[in-house]
């Protein structure tokens, strides 16, 4: 494999890893606060549809982004009401919201545009266009690092850089603020947080809200940057890959970046089976590459590749004064 | 919170949840500019008012009984088996291999072999996550989700690269021999008085009904069923009583996977006559809604499966005759899961409040 091909694959790794990263950090906040969320997929899908539709109707990608976040927040709110207020089963609530999103996005898009559940293609200001970072062209001549900077790091949509910035930001919020300390505590021992006079429900709703926001960014990125518009089921299991990445990362922000980029790399490779065949010297079936994130996650969960210990109070609704 | 009378708990809670789901679906239909009543009429006409419609409704019902029972039996052991979809797809592989490898002389032997093979394949696909949960402490929900995707990838690979006959374009196996086609309801004596046209519902329906009876008998009439239910109620208490967690997790998940796998007899052997990509079409997931709606009781599961059969056939009719997209049925499915599963407490609280209202009046 030559250097140019490697750069191409790394470029698509970053592109494909970005929605995973947003969704993975979204799951991180929720699960750290003790709310399992297998509804990441549904929230992303909802956000993708809302942002694609509004961006097309208004011609503004920013309004689209806002709508995407609102769509995702709506579902996050539902999840919160079901699993925090009414102490419902968080897993079942997540499953329900995924189905709801999968159906309702097609229904709305079909009603609005009548194109088989798609939005019309977005163009111009209705999309996040590629940004060329400063000096990208003038530094291209520098050996090895120049093309890496110009082709891989530069030339992405704004949201890609936002996603990368969200990693240190999440780390800082979780480990260096009072809110983060309490949020992590509520996922480990909600009774202690309650005793300290902090509202468990309030913290958990805040965490679910952040999850909604980040999933909104993930979905909006998919419909307005990665692709030009919304298509039915366009998230294609990314919510679940993000969940896998979260486990792979053992619920830590920097590791989440690594895991998402690794899984993004697998997705990029699956698009280039010729390269895989050339490097490995044997024909690797594409479905195997598709399944690799899931297989790795199963291995991690089984404790064969380090042990993944989830937040202790995850999945249990908190009942005050039992 | 006060307790509801048993009849209210068993009948009223799912019914009220269903009403909520129906009401919101009606709002959704109105919101996309269609008439909910007209939609309901199309659904009822297309799925219940003709023998032909029933032929499709019962075909879906058959699949949903299997997957609903699969979720149910795991649920009683406290396991949330979300991997029915993957197990059903593997079951489909089992059916295809059984039907393609050996030239069975008659459909009855082929049915027996295919059923055993489907159940075995589904069971094995459930046994791996079960083993990992029992021995290595992996979360069963997450592993079964992962196994759904691994199953999908595996089936794609097998259909594209291995099982596809030379010269065929679409990713599917060869067609099964004619002798192996299962009798559909219009080919069964007595029933053919009613079903005069060819319908997809087939003899597997009776296997599904038998499976419901067997699951009921296992859960409430055997020592194993008692152990499964005890384990599901309290793991600690069950352990103290000498029930092995490993055994219960493995057995309940294997039974669950076998039931999910059996579903594929209905669609792969009974309907398509070959294994196609994504043959189970989400029926594994619908099992979750069916089990929740049926309150995890085989009788409830059968009734809920008929309801979902109606919803699926009715939804298809909507897609055909109105401009309401077929995806409406996925929305209803999501709403049913939401209200019967996650917002269960809300519905109960509402009913308790209503009941207390009645009581106060009596006193006064």
From TrEMBL, chain A:
GO cellular component, one term: plasma membrane
Signal peptide residue numbers: none
Major localization listed first in the record, in broad terms: membrane
UniProt-listed CDD domains: TM_PBP1_transp_TpRbsC_like
The keyword Cell membrane appears for this protein: yes
A Pfam family that the UniProt record links to this protein: BPD_transp_2
GO molecular function terms attached to this record: transmembrane transporter activity
Subcellular location: Cell membrane
Protein name in the entry: Sugar ABC transporter permease
Keywords: Cell membrane, Membrane, Transmembrane, Transmembrane helix
Chain segments annotated as transmembrane: 52-78, 90-109, 148-174, 205-230, 251-271, 291-310
Mode of membrane association: Multi-pass membrane protein
The organism's place on the tree of life at top rank: Bacteria
UniProtKB/TrEMBL annotation, chain B:
Topology term for the membrane: Multi-pass membrane protein
Keywords per UniProt: Cell membrane, Membrane, Transmembrane, Transmembrane helix
MF terms (GO), sorted A to Z: transmembrane transporter activity
Cellular component, GO annotation: plasma membrane
Subcellular location: Cell membrane
Residues forming coiled coils: none
Keyword Translocase among record annotations: no
InterPro entries: ABC_transp_permease
Chief subcellular location: membrane
Pfam family, one: BPD_transp_2
Membrane spanning stretches: 12-33, 53-75, 110-133, 140-160, 199-219, 240-263, 301-324, 330-355
Family matches, as PANTHER family: ABC TRANSPORTER, PERMEASE PROTEIN, GUANOSINE ABC TRANSPORTER PERMEASE PROTEIN NUPP
Designated name of the protein: Sugar ABC transporter permease
Species, as recorded: Paragemmobacter aquarius
């Amino acid at each position: 494999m030559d250097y140019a091909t490697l750069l191409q694959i790394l470029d698509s790794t970053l592109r494909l890893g970005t929605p995973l990263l947003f969704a993975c950090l979204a799951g991180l906040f929720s699960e750290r606060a003790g709310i399992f969320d297998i509804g990441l997929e549904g929230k992303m899908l909802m956000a993708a549809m809302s942002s694609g539709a509004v961006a097309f109707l208004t011609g503004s990608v920013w309004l689209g982004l806002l709508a995407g976040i609102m769509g995702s927040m709506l579902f996050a709110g539902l999840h919160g009401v079901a699993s925090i207020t009414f102490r419902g089963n968080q897993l079942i609530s997540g499953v329900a919201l995924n189905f709801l999103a999968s159906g309702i996005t097609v229904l709305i898009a079909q009603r609005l545009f009548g194109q088989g559940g798609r939005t019309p293609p977005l163009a111009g200001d209705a999309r996040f266009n590629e940004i060329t970072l400063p000096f990208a062209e003038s530094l291209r001549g520098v050996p090895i690092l120049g093309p890496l900077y110009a082709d891989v790091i530069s030339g992405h949509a704004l949201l890609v850089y936002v996603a990368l910035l969200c990693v240190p930001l999440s780390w800082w919020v979780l480990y260096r603020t009072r809110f983060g300390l309490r949020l992590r505590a509520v996922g480990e021992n909600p009774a202690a947080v309650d005793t300290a006079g902090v509202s468990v429900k309030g913290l958990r709703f805040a965490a679910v809200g952040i999850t909604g926001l980040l999933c909104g960014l993930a979905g909006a990125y998919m419909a307005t940057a990665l692709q030009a518009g919304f298509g039915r089921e366009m998230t294609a299991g990314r919510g679940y890959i993000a969940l896998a990445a979260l486990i792979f990362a053992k619920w830590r922000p920097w590791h989440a970046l690594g895991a998402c980029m690794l899984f993004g790399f697998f997705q990029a490779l699956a698009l280039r089976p010729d390269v895989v065949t050339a490097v490995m010297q044997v024909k690797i079936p594409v479905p195997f590459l598709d399944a690799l994130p899931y297989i790795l996650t199963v291995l991690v969960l089984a404790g064969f590749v380090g042990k993944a210990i989830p937040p202790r109070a995850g999945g249990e609704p908190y009942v005050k004064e039992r | 919170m006060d307790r509801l009378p048993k009849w209210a708990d068993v009948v009223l809670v799912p019914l009220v949840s269903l009403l909520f789901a129906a009401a919101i679906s009606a709002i959704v239909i109105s919101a996309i500019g269609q008439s909910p009543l007209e939609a309901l009429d199309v659904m009822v006409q297309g799925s219940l008012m003709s023998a032909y419609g029933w032929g499709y409704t019962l075909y879906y019902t058959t699949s949903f009984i299997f997957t609903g029972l699969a979720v149910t039996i795991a649920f009683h052991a406290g396991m949330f088996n979300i991997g029915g979809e993957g197990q059903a797809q593997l079951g489909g592989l089992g059916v295809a291999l059984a039907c393609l490898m050996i030239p069975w002389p008659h459909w009855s032997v082929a049915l027996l072999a295919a059923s055993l093979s489907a159940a075995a394949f589904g069971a094995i696909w459930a046994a791996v996550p079960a083993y990992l949960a029992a021995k290595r402490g992996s979360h069963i929900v997450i592993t079964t989700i992962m196994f759904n995707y691994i199953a999908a990838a595996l089936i794609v690979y097998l259909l594209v690269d291995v099982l596809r006959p030379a010269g065929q374009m679409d990713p599917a196996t060869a067609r099964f021999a004619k002798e192996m086609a299962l009798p559909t309801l219009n080919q069964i004596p007595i029933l053919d008085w009613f079903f005069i046209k060819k319908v997809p519902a087939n003899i597997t329906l009776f296997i599904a009904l038998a499976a419901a009876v067997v699951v009921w008998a296992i859960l409430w009439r055997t020592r194993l069923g008692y152990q499964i239910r005890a384990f599901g109620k309290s793991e600690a208490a069950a352990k103290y009583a000498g029930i092995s967690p490993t055994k219960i997790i493995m057995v309940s998940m294997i039974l669950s996977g076998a039931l999910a796998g059996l579903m594929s007899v209905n669609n792969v052997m009974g309907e398509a006559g070959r294994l196609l990509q994504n043959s189970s079409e989400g029926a594994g997931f619908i099992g979750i809604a069916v089990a929740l709606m049926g309150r995890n009781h085989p009788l409830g599961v059968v009734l809920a499966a008929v309801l979902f059969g109606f919803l699926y056939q009715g939804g298809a009719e909507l897609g055909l005759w109105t401009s309401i997209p077929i995806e409406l049925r996925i929305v209803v499915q999501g709403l049913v899961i939401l209200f019967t599963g996650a917002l269960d407490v809300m519905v109960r609280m509402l009913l308790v409040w209503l009941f207390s209202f009645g009581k106060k009046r009596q006193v006064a």
